[in-house]
From TrEMBL, chains A, B:
Cofactors that this protein relies on: pyridoxal 5'-phosphate
UniProt keyword terms in alphabetical order: Aminotransferase, Pyridoxal phosphate, Transferase
GO terms of molecular function: transaminase activity
Protein name per its UniProtKB record: Aminotransferase class III-fold pyridoxal phosphate-dependent enzyme
Family according to the record: Belongs to the class-III pyridoxal-phosphate-dependent aminotransferase family.
Length: 429, 429
């Protein structure tokens, strides 16, 4: 008999083969060499071989991987009671009251779901119900979720998803490539709906325009667009699944940057630091009009464990001043990236807000040609060197730099040093 | 200054008032006097006043409220790592392999979501994508979930939800009121689609027909219906969100009762004993055909914590032989109910499978007039006496008796004694 030893790398390869046998083939893995993390702490992930990775990607574990306050809240409530919203429980009420304090007074009601997809889908149902319209305006490379209705509103999923003519696409407010296009396309979308006899139900966008490429509209642009949509009878739904909960630094919610108060605000990803909770905040009159006609019950939505998890996250964001941290370290990150742009021609544009940063790679600054292959190389080389990022946008050439909110200046420095070396290496290939 | 003391009852009233201010007005509470539980253990819930309630309703906490094995699994993995399926992790692979052992060999792939709604919505997307059809056949009082697409397939939500003509309603296999109607209506639905040029995508039903009123089709009826639908180009999606995971006693899945192998099987509620996890099991060829054209990523779906929770539930079901318990105690429950029917004219019919029992109340056995008001009275009086049940069906006159699977003979005896007394009391009013 021979003794067979399996190296850690083989263990990952074996796990990958087993995974491919049992999971639906739609499942994808990040990186040319998939990551196999087994432990997380703060801004660090540790793989099966004990190697540590600086996490500059995961916005879900926003208060840091395995934050003890959140872990404790989940463990404690799980051991005590986990039921549903058809019974009275203090956890949902305490959390709802506390969360709503973070919103303008008009936004005074909460409904809870398990995922951002469920929140956006519910927003859509409410908007269509109360306006009587069907038309929805979304950005050209939007992503809003995985349900049948949201896939239609998520052109970034590709051409495999067909959409009805009641979905109108607008340009994201991309002031690097096409300033002014955003407002012009909103006008065009509304005109098209009028011509086709489609009543608008909503304008829906991610307030940081993440999948489109991370953009900041000019002052007043969003308010103008929202006004036009409201004049035409539609609502404004702010998708805060990615920018919400302090990430943009300037405010708790991304819509505050745009000086508008939405009608409905969907929340998700970082809400429970990875525990599946999401929700919809809105004007009570809208919820009441919907609730009068339609019964809505989400079995897991608003259960005591999920509410305790989300409440712990909210408290940590405040106590550790993570919004302020996002503002400051995000500023340092962008300054650092702009400095790198001085000697790396690949870095065409640096933008974003707080700890949601986009860095656009171009192979030619004059023509702004998207450097898509280089972005793939940068992302994978960074991973080899122990730093996790990703890329976004229609051409996949915009580095997505979006760490947990406990990312500090020292982490930003390590990230920038690594990126500096990797940009040099990739440019020389 | 006067000292103000608040009684526990007032505390619940105050909590209710606070709840109504902050939660969307669509939220409903069970019972004329809402329940305010603060602790759960096994088949028991304890309210804020320390009173205990026998839980004969909650199918989500299926291995018992706060089962230590599930609580531990959640607490341990939460403290270690919680990420997503774009990284390799053993928990999802171990769970998927183990879960798929419980299915016929044809059903060889798993996709994970957070809720049964997401699972059914994904099933629908896949069915429409691979068949090229849009038509869906559901029962007349079906409930399949809360998304825009599923609300259309859930007529039990009421007339506030409009549906397209590609949704066709069939009669549930109700052999108490209308034997034979099920198959005839499937034929009629398919004929209607042919006449309207609608291609069928799927036949979708809950294999225990819960919202319709808890029914058991005659042998061969379901197989015949599925054959007709497949001949017309559609798939059969088994909604196992309620009957799955051993509840029906005879088998792990409700579809086994009907001697058919579905194309897709949606799972949910009891899967994580209250932790938000759900999923879709199906033929790998279907997932592959969908995955080739459409990108699907569910942020929280299949995260390590959810997988550990669900894996713990699966192990407990096996180790504590809960399917066998459901078979035996369900049998005792139905025998006991049939004995009660000897001297309670209200009890018109007793049916179900395992620990999913329906008891239909009629004010007149000859005409089978639904005793809807009496059902409300029975449910509320039972609650006053410390036993939790609910009612279902279009007329709300069918008692829904559906306890955690750790419900034993002694609990069945307590339930039956209480129901006996309550039926006497309600009949005398």
């Amino acid at each position: 008999m021979t003794e067979v030893t399996t190296s850690p790398v083989n263990a990952s390869a074996e796990l990958l083969a087993r995974r491919q046998r049992v999971l639906g083939q739609g499942y994808r893995l990040f990186y040319q060499e998939p990551l196999h993390p087994v432990r997380g702490e703060g801004v660090w992930l540790f793989d099966a071989q004990g190697k540590r990775y600086l996490d500059v990607y995961n916005n879900v574990a926003s208060v840091g991987h395995c934050h003890p306050a959140v872990v404790d809240a989940i463990a404690r409530q799980s051991a005590q009671l986990n039921t549903h919203t058809r019974y009275l429980h203090h956890a949902i009420v305490d959390f709802a009251e506390d969360l709503l304090r973070e919103f303008p007074a008009d936004l005074d009601n909460l409904m809870l779901t398990c995922t951002g997809s469920e929140a956006n889908d519910l927003a859509l149902r409410i908007a269509r119900h109360v306006t009587g319209g069907t038309g929805v305006i979304v950005t050209r490379w939007a992503y809003h979720g995985v349900t049948s209705a949201l896939a239609e509103l998520s052109p970034s999923l590709g051409d495999g998803v067909t959409r009805g003519n009641y979905v109108k696409l607008i340009d994201a407010p991309d002031n690097y490539r096409q300033p002014g296009a955003f407002l012009a396309s909103v006008q065009a979308a509304l005109a098209e709906m009028r011509a086709e006899g489609i009543r608008p139900a909503a304008l829906l966008f991610d307030t940081i325009f993440s999948s489109d490429g991370v953009f900041s509209p000019l002052a007043g642009e969003v308010a103008q667009a929202v006004q036009w949509v409201r004049d035409a009878g539609g609502l404004f739904i702010a998708d805060e699944v990615q920018p919400g909960f302090g990430r943009t630094g300037e405010a708790m919610w991304g819509f505050a940057r745009h000086q508008v108060v939405p009608d409905l605000v969907s929340l998700g990803k970082p809400m429970g630091n990875g525990h599946p909770i999401a929700g919809l905040v809105g004007k009570s009159a809208l919820f009441a009009a919907f609730g009068r006609d339609v019964s809505y019950f989400n079995t897991f939505g608003g259960n005591p464990v999920s509410c305790q998890a989300a409440h712990a996250v909210l408290r940590v964001i405040r106590e550790e001043q993570l919004q302020q941290n996002a503002l400051w370290v995000g500023h340092c990150l962008r300054e650092g990236l702009q400095a790198l742009a001085q000697h790396h021609a690949l870095l065409g544009d640096v933008r974003g807000s707080g700890l949601f940063v986009g860095a656009e790679l171009v192979s030619d600054r004059e023509n702004k040609t998207p450097a898509s292959a280089e972005a793939v190389a940068v992302v994978n080389t960074m991973r080899q060197r122990g730093v996790l990022i990703s890329a976004t946008g229609p051409a996949g050439n915009i580095l997505k730099i979006r760490p947990p909110l406990v990312f500090r200046e020292e982490h930003a420095a390590l990230f920038l040093d690594t990126l500096d070396a990797v940009l040099t290496e990739v440019a020389q290939r």
